From TrEMBL, chains A, B, C, D, E:
Organism: Candidatus Kirkpatrickella diaphorinae
Organism classification: Bacteria, Pseudomonadati, Pseudomonadota, Alphaproteobacteria, Acetobacterales
PANTHER family: FRUCTOSE-BISPHOSPHATE ALDOLASE CLASS 1
Name by which UniProt lists this protein: fructose-bisphosphate aldolase
Keywords: Lyase, Schiff base
Matching InterPro entries: Aldolase_TIM, DeoC/FbaB/LacD_aldolase, DeoC/FbaB_aldolase, FbaB-like
Protein family (similarity comment): Belongs to the DeoC/FbaB aldolase family. FbaB subfamily.
Pfam families reported for this sequence: DeoC
One example GO MF annotation: fructose-bisphosphate aldolase activity
UniProt EC number: 4.1.2.13
The UniProt record lists the keyword Ion transport: no
NCBIfam families: PRK09250.1-1 (NF006704)
Length: 304, 304, 304, 304, 304
């Protein structure tokens, strides 16, 4: 199968990567309903680790079973399924070759006393489980940010040599940022740019608000009249901050969205030129049928 | 000998493991009185390290001798014997091949100034001593939890490559948890789930109370009407939190149980669908004859 | 092509380096408009990482695209382009062989809580991207200085063995230094000397003021009547402090310079006997045509 | 030479060790006046490192010379000589093969600001110097105890693979222990047990007093009526706490003992069933002739 | 050339070292005016790193050039030249084989916030630069002492295996020591002894005063009537504390000495039986002719 122009164009941006990594990028882009469009929707399931099992799965108890999520991602025609090592081990063989896997290599939890994460997965783990990519979270602004970037460097160097794709969750937090600052548009753009500079192939950030957090940045946004008035404009700014669109950029769905506002955000992400979404609790916390319907709407938006 | 359906079903859940690890899982499941039932009772003896020799063994001084515990586990028809490196070295040759061994790779002690553990055993140690598994304790909630999970990752990656089984003791403690919180049902379920996500093959937690500790979790338990009214229901919830029963789950006996309440707990563990128990002080702190009688009652419950 | 006397003389100062490193020094010195003169002008683009994308690139949005900077450096006839791993990966193949690359191996950012940097690039990264050199920042005076020097030692040992050039950004800061102290001439000279002692091939410091910061140093400067009255004299002193000119010494442009004062500083750097300049925001934050004109003036000064 | 029954019996307790370690155990047990008895007297000389040279050697200045101690141990017919790397290097060739050597791998000093030790010797050092064993100190109760146990694990794993014997000095100290607590019998027994659990072949503790330090332990000692009324009884309890005598247990001489009380302690150590003594300052701080006389009395007690 | 008896006698003290290290010891002892005498005078130039370039070299600006120091050491007929990696790299090829080199592997600086050092050179660096020895500073009494001793162990193990000599600068400092304590005779003797115990081949300490710093040591010095009344007597005591003269012991010149008092100290060092001196600022901070004259006087004293 020859590549579509969209995938071909994206691939050109990864000019320094080896054929192994390029092949895995193609796997991610050529799977599911969005195959060939250059767009991605990914199912991430690390919420049990981060928030606890009942808070994540009690609303739809089928989700306690790792196989449910593999199936959901496959049936919904998504591009990839991302999870920590334990959940992937529980289904990687049953669903081998049916959907690209992303090994989420570090995780935090709600009992933790510090704004850090444990590294629970490695590149050899990703390889033996047949993954196409590793995932890693950094907290720019946290007192552990340099440590996390050092860990990312080690994992990314090994992953790239092994032909894997590197996905970076860039979630700002820490003493310089209040709650509003964590999703301020200057901070989200900075978070995306840091991930790009640190060598990510795929960048995941949160949908930004129109707040501006760093005074020195605010001055520039106002002086240069950067358009941050709509979600679409903000997304476009973050695409630009990701090496002028040379890096695949995807957004999380947000925690408290109702379906309508979620779909509005998805439309803005599409309109702003980003590559897609990661949809976790918004999909697996409702019955499968409803989840498939919602994910169908989302992939339709990105296709359209 | 072909596998029983119970063991065969359990084995399917470890679909990503190599034949070496599968063989060691079979060794654990096909040893002793519970062979073939899919249930396990394990004798752990690290209390001398954790609490001191007299507090552990003075009540039944035969227990000062490591050989006593090997014999006790073998005569009682248990599935495995778990201990730190020194105790295993003292008997691993005399009892070679007679019972599966679990090398407890980290240990704390009662003189320690911090909620952490020292790593005293390694995967090469486990292999040269003929062990089937390594054991490792994490303290979710402790300020050392990320460090411990990082240590677990390194040991587990090496153990899985070497065909060993990974048993995780998941014991929550730390600044966010008071004494009651350490055994609250939401916390125990979370502890089991974290061990599963971190890649444990076998998970050991404490029997949960009906307390709910994290406010955000409590809200969900109440909204979703999760049944935590009986020990059996709570055990079932923790089985569910262990990847919907895809991971072997065993419970410790608890410190102050009299025999009657201990057996009640065992019955609830069985009824709730968990795989077994770890019985330490409740067995080796009484005369051998009484211990064998008690362990016989316990294995009978799991068999029945 | 045989070497010019200027390049040949410089090369003699690197008498302990292997032919690989010498070849890369020649690549740096024999590229662009200043080829053969023994002078260098380098384009560094890590400001997006250090200060955020909008503060760095909004004034000239073409700069959001990594390819823009490769092109700018090549068209301006500069000696090298320096950037973090992500930006280099985005263009290293398109522009392969057209300009020597310096992989900036560590970076800080404006959300950081500590005066440190993350190591985001490695020697294998530099080699696979076709770089001639690695770049590394140390903060003499910071509580992380020993840590950074240790990291530099590891990277430099590996880089020298691999035939790469080691460029050290030596930027003093920390509890003993107020803002004025960071650019005081005694501190700049000390910063250059530390980089030389630590094994740098090329040293980058900031243009010094005539302030004297350390009391013990001030006494010596006054007693020995060291001339620090003009920028030219101060540059000459720092050249002397870099092993009497045996190490290539270049200066940054400074943050708030208008074009006129920037060119004055460049003239003083030339007159004082240093080897060149690193020009970042002063070039890429204006339209390309203006940037090329400015860089042309600068290279003309160094040639003249 | 065939083994005596005593040595043969001891060797059986080291059933998990390789022939190399067994051979070195035999070397330790079959050297000197106590050869074949299963008893050991060892000369340790690390007091210069721990307390300074004058405090250690001025009383008998011959002791400034490392060769003096090799000679003293050999002439006295002791089982082994233990010292840090520098002192062993100074005589290991002159006295090669004349007495088993123990490389003391970590040391503290009287200028130290923390209750820790530096690791100054390694397993390769022990091997190249012809040593039969490594020695390592842990401080149970210290805030560095887990770190020290981790260091011990690494050294012990390497030593056992190389056929060396592992001797652990287990000296409790730290915030939970006052001066009396450091030698309380429950604490000494616990210290010996921890060393056994951590995999020591030979355990060295201090002679215990009849104090009981941990309240939870005290309760058990009283309830179980453990006999701690005499030094002999206490030694017997510590032998029991060392895996019921399966590990070689030796005692230090104590700092302020006069000769008479020292010999009384030695007799109690013998009577209580321990394997021997380490005699440092009590031997080398007196003239050689007196030291030989004293050591002769001590070996006679153990022989008798 | 056969060895002189003096060198031959010294060599016997290094009985555990391999022929490579012995050959390098001979190189150090058989170079320059003192060849064959068993005495050494070494030129160390790390003051630019430690105190800054102007404070070190402005008094005699020829010293800004690394080649000056190589020449000075060679022309003065010294035994060796010691410097950090950068300074050695700048001249090691021009002066290859003309004088033994000591790579000073760690260095502090005057902007540092902690009593520690950075490791800037390695054993592979020493080998590729043709060095005969590595040099390393420890600060007994500092909170970094154990860390430094651990670093020394790693470097020394590697250096000895590679046939290099290990020179230890032992400079006490830290919370337990006031300024006078740092050079008190008990502390200097202890510092020399620690370096010997840690495995140094050559020990460098500062000339001691007649102060006694540690109360427990003071008691012994007075009780044993250790002669500390003259510099000669104190030097003799420190020779004794260095394994009764089995380790080469050299002294620094001291910071504020005028030439006369410096020469007096040198005479006392000779008379006390030490092996030589390290002369840095006292030589290179005066014009070359004067420096050569002074160094000639010093070597004459050691020869005489």
């Amino acid at each position: 199968m020859s590549l579509t122009p969209q995938v071909s164009d994206i691939l050109k941006n990864y000019e320094s990567d080896n054929p192994g990594t390029k092949a895995n990028l193609v796997r991610l882009l050529n799977t599911g309903k969005l195959a060939g469009t250059g767009k991605l929707v990914i199912l991430p399931v690390d919420q049990g680790f981060e928030h606890g099992p009942a808070r994540s799965f009690a609303a739809n108890p089928a989700g306690y079973d790792p196989h449910y999520h593999f199936s959901l991602a496959i049936e919904a025609g998504l591009n990839a399924f991302a999870a920590p090592i334990g959940m992937l081990e529980a289904g990687a063989s049953s669903f081998a070759g049916q959907i690209p896997l992303i090994l989420k290599c570090n995780s935090s939890n709600s009992l933790a006393t510090e704004k850090d994460q444990a590294v629970t997965g490695t590149v050899p783990d990703a390889l033996r489980l047949g993954c196409s990519a590793i995932g890693f979270t950094i907290y720019p602004g946290s007192e552990y940010c340099f440590k996390q970037m050092n860990e990312l460097r080690e994992l990314a160097e090994e992953a790239k040599a092994a032909g894997l794709v590197v996905v970076v969750w860039s979630y700002p937090r820490g003493p310089m940022l209040d709650k509003a600052g964590e999703t301020a548009v200057d901070i989200c753009a900075y978070a995306a740019h840091m991930a790009a500079e640190a060598g990510a192939h795929i960048i995941k950030v949160k949908p930004p608000t129109d707040a501006l957090s760093l005074p020195a940045a605010k001055k520039v946004y106002e002086a240069e009249k950067i358009d941050i008035s709509s979600m679409e404009a903000r997304v476009r700014h973050i695409v630009q901050s990701s090496f002028a669109g040379r890096r695949i950029l995807i957004f999380s769905g947000g925690e408290h969205a109702d379906t309508k506002s979620l779909l509005e955000t998805i439309r803005a992400i599409k309109a702003g030129g980003a590559n897609g979404s990661i949809i976790g609790r918004n999909s697996f916390q409702r019955p499968k049928k409803e989840a498939l319907a919602l994910l169908s709407e989302i992939t339709d938006i990105f296709k359209g």
